[in-house]
C-alpha cells in the first residue's frame, strides 16, 4: 500500500505535498512524512498516525522550499511509529527516499551495508534504499538509482532527492503504481491521480522499469536500459470535486447513495433491451468461447465476493464451468491453466498486487484475461486482453460499496454477452433479464429512501461482539459480502454461513440473544431458509431478515424484516446487499468509528 | 437428526429402550422419551435434556412392559422442551409415534386435522403423524401407516404402536436411516446399529419406502406397494466395546488418539510402495477417466473441509479439474452435471441428507458417484457407484477427528490411483508419496506423545471470545478445519482466513492481545506466511505457529511454536491438523464443556 507524492516548481512544496497526501490517505494512514530541499539541505518531518499529526509538526517549522517528496504509510515491516515513517534518509542525510512496495531481499542488503559501516534507525525494508543509493552514488543521481534498483528484489515505486543535485527528483517503479504530472513549469509524481488533480490534469503513466527525472523546468523519461523515451500524456477528464463528500458525513455513505447513478452509468449504452450486449473493450468471439473449457474468476476481498455471485450468474447464463478463487491462493496452487482457459480478474483499483500477478501468470501460460476494474489506465486494465470498466467513479471509502455493485453488473453483462454468443438462452429470456437490470437503479434508490428500520437495527446491535449471517444460494454469497462489510466498518466479528451448513458445526455458537442476519431473496429456497431461521430462533437468536416484498411469512419468525422491491431471483442479490451496506455503516457510526478509514486497512492493496 | 429405537420381546422394554437411546445420544440430546405398552395401554414418559433426566422420571414408574418405542431428539420444529419431546400420541392416546426427519407439509396437515377437531399440544411437525394415523385407522395399523405416509412430504423414519394391536410395532423410512435387528424371539428397530448391538448382531437394512411389521415372534417386510419382500440379514462383526471410551476422559480424545491406528487400517492393503494403489470397491478405468471433464467433491461440515484439501491434492496428482462444494448449496444451484462428470461424495455416517440428495441428483443426470464413507451399509455407500470405506471404526464424538484424517488419506489414495491411470506422475514420484503416507501413523503418534505446549496454549486462550486462524495454500484448508473444530468444541468464535486475504478486510478485527493460530507446512509459502504473521504481530496479535521441524525462523515472530515431524508438503496437512484438534479439545476441557456432545450439534445430520 502506501502513497507517495513529489513536487518541483514555483509553489511552496509543503502545501502541495500535504494536499497530495491528504488525497492519498486512502492508501494507508499509519504515518506520514515529507522531505523538502531547504537551502540545499534536506529537511525531513515525520509523524505517526493521521496526516493532521504531520501538519501540526510542520506548522512551526516555517519551511519555504520548492522541491520535495512525501509519503503516507501502511505498515508492513515494522510497527507504525515516527521512526518507521517515510521518507528515509541516508546516514549522512544527503539522500532521501519515499517508497511504496516491499523489498524482499532487504535483510541481505542491510547486512551488506552494515558490514560497510552503515547504521539503521528503523525496522523498515525501505531504509536500505537511501544507504544503498549513497553507496552507489558517483555524482549522478539517475545513475545511482539505476544501479540501485538492479540490486533490489520486490516491488517499488520510488521518489528520490539528493543534496548534491538539489534541483532534481528521480522516480521509478516496478509492480507499484506511479504517475507523473505536468503543470506550467512544475512537475509532480504520485501513486495515484487524485493526489495532484488540484494542480494538473496532464498525466503520464510510467511503465514498469522506467525512470523519470524531474529537473528545473524539464522532464526526461528513460527506459530500464537508460535510453531516453517519449510517452504520451493523458488528460484526466473527471472532476476532483466528484471525489469529495458532497454533503454526506462520510465518503462511504456518499458512495452508498451514489449507487443508483453508478449502476446507471455502468449499464448505459451496454445493456439495451432488444439489442445484443455491447462491450467495446471485450473482443471475444463465439469461436473463442467454444474453445474455452473453463473460466476462472480471480480477485481479492470484496471483488472476490463479487466473483462468487458472478460464478453462479455466469454458469446459469452461459453454461460454461466457472471457478472462483482468491488471488493470493490461486497463484500459488499451480492451477490448471492453458490456452483453453479464460480468466476474469476483478479489481476496483486495477493495482491489486496478487490479482495483477495472477493476470501475468495466466497470460504466460496462454490464457486470455478479461479485467473488470474501476480505474482507466490502471496496471490491470493496461495488461489485460479485454477490459470491462465499471463506471462507478472514484471510490474513496476504504470499504467498497458502489464499486462492488457495479462489478456485479459487469459480471451479469459479460454472462449475458456469453449467453448471446453461445445461444444458451433465448432472446426473450435474456431480454427479460436486461429489462430487470435496468430497473435496479430505481429500486436501489427506493431502498435508500427508507432506512429507518436499518438504523433501528443498527442501534440495537451496535454493542454486540459477534453477529452471524445466514443465506442459501445467492443469498449465501450476499451474506459473505454483507459480513465482510460489517467486519471492516464496525470491527464486530461477523461471519457468514450457508444455511444448510449450520448444523454441521457452526450452530454450536448460537446462544441466547445472538443476532443473526438473513437475506432471503431466492424464492425456491425461501422455505428451507426459513427452517434454518427457526433452528436458530429456537436456540435464542434474534433474527433480521432482508426479503422480497411478497414474502409475508418470514415476519412470523424474524424479529425484524426489511423488505426490498421484487425482481428476478437471479439479480436480487444486487438489491439485498444495499440495506446490509447501510447496516454496516450505521453500526460503525453508532460505535463512533472512523467509517471511511477502518483501522489496519488501506484502499488499494498493492503489496502481496 | 434424532435417534429412534423400538423393541418387542421377552426383556423389560424400558431397559432395552434406555440402553439403546444411550447409544444414540450422539444423534441429538435435546430431549428423550419412550412409549411402552403396559397392560394394553400406552404409557409415555418424556423429559427435556439429557437421557439421565428421562431415566430419573422412569425410575419411579415401575413399568413392566415388553413392547415399546423410544426417541432422543435434536430440535428442528419447536424448542427443546418436555412437550415437544417424542413420542407423540394421538389425541385419544391410542397411537404413539417416534419420528426422525422433517415433515415439510405439516402446517397444511395440521390445519386439516384441526378442522376435523384434532388438537395439538406441541410445536412439532411430528405431532400430525399420530393424529393422521388415527384418522386413517380402520382396524389395521400397517394399512393406516401405508395410507398416512402417502400424505407426508419430507423425510422420516417412523416407529408406531397402537393399543388396538398391542403386540405390534410398524416401522418405515424415507430418506432417514432405519435398521431392524433380529434376536432370539425378539425384534428391534433403531436409527443405527450401535443402539442394539448389546442384544443382537443380526441386522436388516430397511430400504427407502419399505415397511417392517414386528409382531409377536415374527417379522414381516413389505415394499412401498404393500407386497411382501425378503431382505438378507447382515451380521455385524465389529465390537460394541470398540465404541467405548477405553480409558480416555472423552470419546473425542480417544478418537484423536486412535488416529495412528485409523490411518494404518485405512491404508493397509491399499497403499503399498512399488505396487499400484488397490481400491476394491472403485471400478474406474483409464478410458472412463479420460472421458470425465470435471470432478465435483461434495460434502458437508468436516467432510467438506476434507474435500478442500482433496481438491488441491487431486488436481496436483491427476491434473483433472476438481471443484468442491457444500452439499446444501450445490444441490440447489443447478450445477453443470452430465455423463462427463465424476462426483465424489464424502460422509462419515453415510447418511448425511444433503449429501445423499446430491448423490441421487447426480446419478439421475448421468454422473458417476464415488462415496467416501466410514459406515459400511449406509445409504450413501449402498447407492454410490464406487465406494472408498475409511476404516476409522465407529466415531462417537460429535466433532469428527479420526474420520477426517482417514477421509484425507482416502482422497490422496484416489488421487494417486487416478495419477496411475492417467500417467500424470512418474512411478517414482508416486512411490515417494506412498512411502511418506505410510510414515504418517508413526508421525501422528509422535505428535500425540508431546502435548504439553498445546495444553499450555489451550490454558492461555481458553477464556477468549474470538480466535483467528491464518494459512496459505494447503495450510489455509487446514486452518478452516482447525477453526471448525475449535468452534464446535469450545464455542469460541473462531474464523480462518487465507493469509493474503487478511489485508482485504479481516485485518480490521486484529487488535491488541488477540490470538492468531497459523499452520505453516508449505515450504514455498513460508516466507509469505511469515510476512502475514508480522502484519498481525505489529498490530498486537499473539501468534501460535504449527510448523515443520526445520523452520527455526518462525520462532522470531511467533509467541509459541509447535513443531511437527517433516514430511512432503503435499501431505503435511494430515500432520498439522492433529495438534489443532488437541488444542480444540483442551480449550473445551478447560472451559468445562461437554466435549463429546457440543451444544446444538448432532453426529449425523440426516435432515436438510
UniProtKB/TrEMBL annotation, chains A, B:
Q: Does the keyword Cell division apply?
A: no
**Which cellular component terms (GO) are annotated to the entry?**
cytosol
Task: Name the major location.
Answer: cytoplasm
Q: Which Gene3D superfamilies match?
A: Glucose-6-phosphate isomerase like protein, domain 1 (3.40.50.10490), Glutamine Phosphoribosylpyrophosphate, subunit 1, domain 1 (3.60.20.10)
The UniProt record lists the EC number as 2.6.1.16
Alphabetically list the UniProt keywords: Aminotransferase, Cytoplasm, Glutamine amidotransferase, Repeat, Transferase
Q: Does the keyword Nuclease apply?
A: no
Q: Which reaction does it catalyse?
A: D-fructose 6-phosphate + L-glutamine = D-glucosamine 6-phosphate + L-glutamate
Q: Where in the cell is it found?
A: Cytoplasm
Domain annotation Glutamine amidotransferase type-2: ranges: 2-217
Q: Where in this chain does the record put each SIS domain?
A: 285-424, 457-598
GO BP terms in the entry: carbohydrate metabolic process; fructose 6-phosphate metabolic process; protein N-linked glycosylation; UDP-N-acetylglucosamine metabolic process
One MF term in GO for this entry?
glutamine-fructose-6-phosphate transaminase (isomerizing) activity
- Spell out the catalytic residues: 2, 603
Role according to the record: Catalyzes the first step in hexosamine metabolism, converting fructose-6P into glucosamine-6P using glutamine as a nitrogen source.
Q: What does the subunit section of this Swiss-Prot or TrEMBL entry state? A: Homodimer.
Q: Which NCBIfam families match?
A: glmS (TIGR01135), PRK00331.1 (NF001484)
Q: What is the protein name stated in its UniProt record?
A: Glutamine--fructose-6-phosphate aminotransferase [isomerizing]
Please name the source species: Proteiniclasticum sediminis
